[in-house]
Design a protein that fits this description.
Helix 1 crosses helix 2 and helix 2 packs across helix 4. The protein is an all-alpha fold. Helices cover about 75% and strands about 0% of the residues.
Length: about 90
């Protein structure tokens, strides 16, 4: 069993500290993606929290077809893109 499977199974089993481990493991990735898109620290902090809330809500849908980092990155991109569309802000290239 891979480390991704271990951590996902632990979170889904509601093991104490499992989601915190997932967040610690992927927070740099989420911050990097979100901050590069919005370029505003406060927005990036808020959106990063939103990303992890969404990950927590949808983790039961993760199918191990890609790495957990890729799946979380996709969520981060989607959450941030929707934020920019709502605010009608241009995406930073």
């Amino acid at each position: 069993m891979s480390e991704d499977q271990d951590i996902v199974n632990a979170v889904l089993a509601r093991a104490p500290g499992a989601f915190e481990r997932l967040m610690l493991r992927h927070k740099a990735l989420v911050w990097h993606l979100v901050y590069r898109m919005v370029q505003h620290p406060e927005d990036a902090r808020e959106l990063s929290q939103d990303v992890f809330l969404r990950v927590h809500e949808c983790l039961h849908q993760y199918r191990f077809e890609s790495s957990l980092a890729t799946w979380i990155g996709r969520i981060a991109f989607t959450v941030t893109t929707r934020h920019l569309q709502k605010k009608r802000l241009p995406m930073v290239e």
